[in-house]
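Long-time lurker, first post. I've been practising inverse folding by hand and with some scripts of my own, and I keep getting stuck on stretches where the structure tokens seem ambiguous. Below is the full token string for one chain I'm working on. Before anyone asks, I'm not after the true native sequence, just a reasonable design that respects the backbone. If someone could post their per-position residues I'd love to compare against what I wrote down in my notebook.
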């Protein structure tokens, strides 16, 4: 059974501004621990998926740095999208390339910028997900058992009463429904119900299974990729891809396919997962001092509690008498915000773009 992986790495990590920029986004940075996010994503696939079987979808601004950080990945496995069109087209691109190069193999889809603490447990889950995809020829996703009523994640409800005997030993269940990011009251009800999981954005399926679902649920996307199929791995491919993406709509794999398709399965999992979607999430997992502060760089704190204070620049960063703040200093920009409002950092990035302040992006 041949297994390949597709790592989606085209995002800009706007909620991690000012450290995350278009040319050096979150996945290419060392946010927590050692190694960049994308390096750790690749490292924890070994030995489940060898480096030669890993494809990465990114954009032209990031491709060279990805190649530099991951010399073990063949350069032809770094696929460059002409424009960002969300996760569905990125997955369709990877599936078409794999079909041309390797046939109807198993395809693991992973974001490039997630944190996993227990690599052994992650690899065990991945192996079980692979076997589930083969046995069912369905679409398999990995769900994370929630530990708190989180409003920043999507949720997936599963059916633990009618278990398919083919996959019972693998710990997989049929999916009931997908739920968007909830308000706090709804998140609490999800947590109390016991049958809702966080949507990790990790998927496993056979190439034929996902391409058939594209043909059924996103025929416009499927048609564009069908037309460029003969050009894959030829000198004409880049131009054909650019033409296809001009017509391609932006749509997520969740909304476009996973919420509608049949034969959907999920594996409830616990392996110390965090999507590191904001500075507050990074603070949550960071080491802290006796006052609850996470500090990195040349930082001096006095009478400061529960703050995330970081400087990657040459300046000294000092804080006195504050609490519950995120303070991030770089060579050309400083972010100061209430820790519980770090999701709004993206709005700062949007405003910089509106004002044409490209040098800060």
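-- Answer (accepted) --
I ran through it position by position. Result:
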């Amino acid at each position: 059974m041949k297994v390949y992986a597709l790592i989606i790495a085209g995002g800009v990590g706007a909620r991690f501004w000012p450290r995350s920029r278009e040319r050096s986004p979150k996945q290419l940075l060392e946010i927590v621990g050692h190694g960049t996010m994308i390096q750790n994503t690749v490292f924890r696939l070994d030995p489940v998926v060898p480096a030669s079987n890993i494809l990465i979808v990114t954009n032209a601004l990031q491709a060279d740095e990805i190649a530099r950080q991951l010399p073990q990945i063949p350069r032809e496995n770094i696929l460059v999208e002409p424009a960002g069109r969300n996760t569905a087209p990125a997955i369709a691109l990877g599936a078409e390339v794999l079909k041309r190069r390797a046939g109807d193999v198993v395809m693991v889809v992973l974001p490039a910028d997630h944190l996993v603490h227990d690599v052994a447990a992650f690899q065990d889950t991945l192996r079980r997900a692979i076997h589930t995809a083969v046995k069912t020829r369905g679409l398999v996703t990995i769900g994370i058992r929630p530990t708190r009523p989180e409003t920043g994640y999507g949720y997936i409800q599963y059916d633990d009463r009618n278990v398919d005997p083919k996959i019972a030993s693998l710990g997989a269940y049929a999916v009931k429904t997908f739920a968007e990011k909830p308000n706090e009251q709804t998140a609490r009800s999800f947590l109390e119900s016991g049958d809702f999981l966080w949507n990790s954005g990790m998927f496993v399926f056979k190439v034929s299974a996902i391409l058939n679902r594209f043909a059924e649920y996103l025929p416009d996307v499927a048609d564009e990729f069908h037309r460029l199929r003969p050009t894959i791995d030829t000198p004409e491919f880049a131009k054909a891809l650019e033409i296809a993406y001009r017509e391609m709509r932006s749509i997520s794999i969740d909304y476009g396919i996973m919420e509608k398709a049949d034969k959907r399965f999920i594996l409830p999992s616990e392996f110390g997962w965090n999507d590191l979607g904001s500075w507050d999430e990074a603070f949550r997992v960071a080491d802290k001092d006796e006052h609850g502060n996470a500090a990195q760089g040349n930082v001096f704190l006095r009478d400061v509690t529960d703050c995330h204070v970081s400087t990657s620049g040459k300046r000294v960063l000092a804080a006195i008498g504050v609490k519950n703040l995120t303070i991030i200093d770089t060579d050309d920009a400083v972010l100061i915000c209430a820790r519980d409002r770090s999701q709004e950092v993206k709005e700062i990035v949007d405003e910089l773009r509106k004002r044409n302040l490209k040098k800060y992006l």
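A couple of notes from the structure itself: DSSP finds eleven helices and 17 strands in the chain. Residues 279-360 form one domain. Happy to go over any region you disagree with.
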